[in-house]
Amino acid sequence: MSHAPTAAQVRDAAAEVADPELARGQAAFFQARPGGYGEGDEFLGIRVPVQREIATRFRGIAPDQVVELLDSPVHEHRLIALFLLRQEFDSELRRGGDGRGWVDLYLDAVRRGRVDNWDLVDSSADPVLGEYCRRTGELDLVTQHARDPDLWRRRVGIIATFAFIKHGDATALLAVAPFVRDDRRDLIQKAFGWMLREVGKRVDETVLLGYLDDNAARMGRTALTYALEHRTPEVRTHYRGLR
Question: Using an 8 Å Cβ cutoff, are 102 and 92 in contact?
Answer without folding.
Answer: yes
